Amino acid sequence: MARISIGIPCFNEEAFIAGSLISALQQAEQTPDIEIIVSDNKSTDQTVEKIEAVLEAMPKNAPKVRLFKQQENIGVERNFWHVFDHSDSELFLWLGAHDQISAGYVSNGLDHLQANSTTSMFCGGHKTLALSGAVTEQPIIYDFNQENPIERYLKSIVELNNCYIFHSIFRRQVFNGYERKSTPSPDHILISRSLWAGKLWQSQDCHYLRRYFPIESRLANSRLDHRYVHASNNVNFYDAYLSDLESLASRLSPPIKSSIMQRASELLINRFGLPFIADAVDGDSAITK
């Protein structure tokens, strides 16, 4: 069993997957106890061929890489969890198939997590990776280092915006008991869950290079649009968020648990708007928002 696994779910990433995979493979130069799991979600381009070309060129001492080729497109969420479920390491990192991690990302993370038991998420500093490959400094700093897990959790509801810290190195046990509900923006919920378990550390000794695409391209793609919270899907988001919080707070006394749930509900509504409910009245659509 490797100590850490890097999971790379991918679909139609022929232009970028080689760079992402190579950046993961290079982590073994400082950390040999590593495995990489790639799941191709039935790509229709040359993604698989690009992956196989990288694997064929790997040296004999390269880390273990497992490539799963889905026989049909299983959807974004299932492919995302596929790489996690096929690992059993103590620590786990999701790497975007068009992103990269800098040299030493994993070794720095392992050192910090071993020395700091109160940290549940280790993430490198943020840099942007242009379509051309140009790298730009763009710091995104979060302060989720409070001693009280409830404070960290509630603070994340309000402050999480750019969720690049989802590409942290996580302690696997954080996700024990997590109910995988279909919801937009599941990364937001999973980050909050991890902050209930421990603090976030953002290191400036290594970096996560996140690639950004034109916003109009993302919104034009209906397959991606449902992944983000908006007025017509926030009910599912609230349900998944609050259900997970209820499970996390299950050991607290009923009055305290009730207060936390109420405060979290208020913060979610203040941030994302009233729950959207559509009812049919006399054959007409009555929308309450």
What do you see in this structure?
With about 290 residues, the chain is an alpha/beta fold. Among the domains are: about 1-100, Spore Coat Polysaccharide Biosynthesis Protein SpsA, Chain A (Alpha-Beta Complex); about 235-289. Helix content is about 35%, strand content about 25%. It contains 10 helices and 11 strands. It has helices spanning about 15-25, 45-55, 75-85, 105-115, 150-160, 185-195, 215-220, 220-225, 235-250, 255-270, and strands at about 5-10, 35-40, 65-70, 90-95, 100, 120-130, 135, 170, 200-210, 275-280, 285-289. Strands 1, 2, 3, 4, 5, 6, 7, 8 and 9 form a 9-stranded mixed β-sheet that branches. A two-stranded antiparallel ribbon has the order 10-11. Helix 1 links the parallel strand 1 and strand 2 (about 35-40). Helix 5 (about 150-160) packs parallel to helix 10 (about 255-270) and helix 9 runs antiparallel to helix 10. The protein is globular. It starts with a strand and ends with a strand. The relative contact order is 0.13. Mean pLDDT is about 90; it is low at about 215-225 and about 280-289.
